[in-house]
Amino acid sequence: MPTPVRRATLIAGGLALSLVGMGVSAAALTTAEPDKRATLDNDNIQGLRVNLDGRGSLSTMLIGLSLPDGAALKTYCVEIDVEIDRDHPNMDEVPWDQYPDPDSLFHENRDHINWILHNSYPAVDLEEIEESVDHSFQNGLSRREAIAATQAAIWHYSDGANLARGLVTPGHPQSSGDVRALYEFLTGDENEGLDEQPAPELALTPDEVSGEPGTVLGPFEVATSAEIAELSSTLPEDVTLVNGDAEPLGGEVSDGAEIYVDVPEGAPDGAGTVDLSASATLNLGRLFVGADYEKHPTQSLILASSENTKLSVSGEVSWVTQEPEPTEEPTDTPEPTETPEPTDTPEPTETPEPTDTPEPTDTPEPTETPEPTETPEPTTPPEDDEDDEDEDEELPDTGAASTLMVAAGLVALIGGLGLTGFAVAGRNTRS
């Protein structure tokens, strides 16, 4: 099978975690802004009374809270001057910076309070506490002594209260030394503080994946603060959950796991869910304040121990066969006509080089044209007698007389030309 990652199709999104039966959204928990509801109950564990400077003798106890799913919580008081209001028992978990009194020492000392919760009772067994404290406890450290010392140390940081000198456990003088020794350890140099711890988490990212049959969808990525989470699904029988190596997944996954959904080829369109559930413990140091604190103030509490609570989350998956887009039938392409081969272009003939143009010869100067000689006026013929006139009129005009005149003119012209030529010839000879 191909690597699922290469065939994965997913729709991005974020998935909120739900706290079963608590009305708590996962978004609140994953952003460290939980809105969990708890209720005051009577399952308290009593400690010894302690004497405080300027405050007298106060009772101490682990105060019980319960979650809607039945999980039991144990808390200490972090607001010494406010009494518990049993008539308004609802408590909401909030971040540390939402402590109701802005001027309280809690804000600057909350890290030290959290360190106490993680290093004293009930988070740590009594025997382990004895080993940590340089003191010889009378008949060992009792639970009531541990609660009294721990609550007094927390009040030291949240409200500036201090144990009184002398007897600190009225009515129980044998416990005074043990309580003081543990109190001084919890407020001493060992306490370097501890930051607020994250809320329990169970999440799938993204909240939805989709694709086509014949592909591996996903992955869903698991994020959880629990050691393991139980994996289940609501899917058709032939659709399976696999890991990144295309191997079937079992019933448990851990933080950072990747979940793929293998949809076989030819599977009908469908959908389903991938489901996770886990048991997780609320981290110590979670702060609880009255749900209606402004109208009905009640003592603020901080978590000292917790039973496991259940978390659950689901992601949706769907697959749909994509219909291929219709393609248009191609029209017949006309066959191309043959292109006639080009005929050979005749090579150009060489152009003959032009011959030298002969230089023009000198044009002879024109000769002077001789002035024409005057034609002598014709003499007037003598008058004939009338008989001659009559004879002339009777003789037909044959042209003889005209011929003679033309001939005479030609002779004269030729003679003129001859004289001209002679003159030119003579001029040339002289020159």
TrEMBL record:
Signal sequence extent: 1-27
InterPro entries associated with the record: LPXTG_anchor, Thioester_dom, TQXA_dom
Region Disordered: start-end pairs: 309-401
Biased composition (Pro residues): 337-381
Comp. bias intervals (Acidic residues): 382-396
Membrane spanning residue stretches: 404-425
Keywords: Cell wall, Membrane, Peptidoglycan-anchor, Secreted, Signal, Transmembrane, Transmembrane helix
Ranges for domain Thioester: 75-191
All residue ranges annotated as the Gram-positive cocci surface proteins LPxTG domain in the record: 392-421
UniProt name for this protein: TQXA domain-containing protein
Source organism (scientific name): Phytoactinopolyspora mesophila
